[in-house]
Amino acid sequence: MSTKGKRDFRPQFHFTPAANWMNDPNGMVYENGNYHLFYQHYPKGTTPGPMHWGHAISTDLLTWQHRPVAIAPDELGVIFSGSAVYDEHNTSGLGTDGQAPIVAMYTSHGECEQQSVAYSLDGIHFTKYEQNPVIKNPGITDFRDPKMFWNPVRGCWSLVLAAKDRVHFYASDNLLDWHKTGEFGPEGNLAPGIWECPDLFPLPTRDGEKWLLLVSMTTTPEQGQIIPQYFIGDFDGNTFINSQPFDEVARVDEGFDHYAGVTFQNAPERIFLAWASNWGYAAQLPTGDYCGQMSLAKSLKLVETPNDGLRLGGKPILPVDQSESETIPHHSFTGEQPLTSETFRLVLTADGPSEIVLKNQSGQMLTLGVNQQNEFYIDRSKAGADDFHPQFQMELYQRRSYPRFFNGSYQLDLIFDVSVVEAFIDQGTRSYTALIFPDTPYNTISVTGGSATITML
To answer: Which of 33, 53, 72, 409 has its C-alpha lying 20 to 30 A from 244's C-alpha?
Structure first.
């Protein structure tokens, strides 16, 4: 179970549950100005237990209002991950009196895994569909995490769900009666493991659009325990066709703590959110009365790289953005300066090797930057407490580096929030999400190899 750390490690603008356990984001949907975040939640303890759907609402993706548990276990099993859509035209027939429903589909995890539906007319209280399950298990041990989306090719609803080491596709006219249309995988799956939490959506390119298939994969501790990967290709209305094979796993995030990320349905742009943790040690974090946090939300885009084709990039959604306002207090510096806040954004501009070091009075330090080999790296081996779980102490979970997709000058964007750091480079085509637990707050920051602008958040 989570343990009590030396101090309060709760982030300020990364979402956390009010108390107890949280993992995967579920059912993310935008409706009438509100972003609905549902999530895997055990409301009676800080370790994984019988899963429910927790719920929170936001208008800006940064400040959240907690809502009551949305969906609880029943005779079909506990409530595993899934998705939700705003059924604006009431294709399901579940709306009443002109009120369009939010329709959620989740995995009922009992004697087997099968897919069930619940709906809401007020965005808070959910009613389970009387004829659940709507997709029965075809005889597969791992058969879960349905992600519904509008299918523009067929003019109907479709969904993608994880089925062991691949995904299956289904279609429906009413969100209730589903038939299978295809499969994809394990093409391009360069590491063995179980696929989970898929998502499928289009993004624009200079030549039209491409479809992105996101798949989170659980694997061995020696391979990183979790691998959030993506494929780029096309969708013919029935299945996904991979058109850009990679010679290495294309990761949504290269950090230690980033999993199960999916996007909001019906949002004005393609907004993504992930669980900022790692199954290897998630239940032993030193966070006391809560356990689990989300990543920052970010808007996604495809980026054309010089030698590696299209890559997934993105921009984090932040409390403030000094690049867009001259009224936000910020200043530039090089060398070392004191830190006065545990929440800040630092933007480093450089044209060669660089390094950012955060230190506290105990001598603990977090280091990241770009090395002589033009690799984007992070090192949390001395960043803070690591004795709560032996896997957290393994080399693979202490240091990582990946080559940049670009050469020459760059902007490195670092967002720090008490115990979570996220760093982005080259339009977000490389990013790191990492948890850190320094005994005392970092009180100095130093920059070498470039100039930095810092904003306290």
So the answer is: 409
347 contacts 412 by C-beta, under 8 angstroms: yes
Indicate if the pLDDT at residue 322 is higher than 50.
Answer: no
Structure tokens at 375: 């690799």
- CA dist., res. 440 & res. 8, Å (int): 10
Which phi and psi (to 5°) does residue 322 adopt?
A: -65, -20
Say whether pLDDT at 334 is over 80. Answer: no
Tell me how far apart the 2 most distant CA atoms of the chain are, in Å.
Answer: 64
Q: Which residue is catalytic, options 24, 145, 257, 417?
A: 24
- Asked if residue 97 has pLDDT above 50, the reply is yes
For the sheet containing 298-305, what is the strand order? 259-263, 271-275, 298-305, 309-316
Report d(CA 338, CA 442) in Å as an integer: 9
d(CA 106, CA 117): 6
Chain-centroid distance, C-alpha 342 = 22
Is the confidence at residue 1, as pLDDT, over 60? no
Whole-Å CA distances, 377 to 4, 139, 255, 352, 433: 30, 43, 10, 13, 12
- Return the pLDDT at 353: 98
> Tell me, what amino acid is at 39?
Y
Cα 437 to Cα 419: distance, rounded to the nearest angstrom: 6
Is the pLDDT reported for residue 166 higher than 80?
yes
Supply the pLDDT for residue 191.
Answer: 72
| For residue 228, cis peptide bond before it (omega within 30 degrees of 0) | no
Closest CA to 199 of 264, 115, 250: 264
CA distance 98 to 380: 53
Q: What is the pLDDT of residue 2?
A: 66
User: What is the average pLDDT score of the chain?
Assistant: 95
Based on the residue annotation, tell me whether 439 is a catalytic residue of this protein. no
Name every residue whose Cβ is closer than 8 Å to that of residue 283 and which is 6 or more positions away in sequence: 1, 2, 21, 46, 47, 48, 291
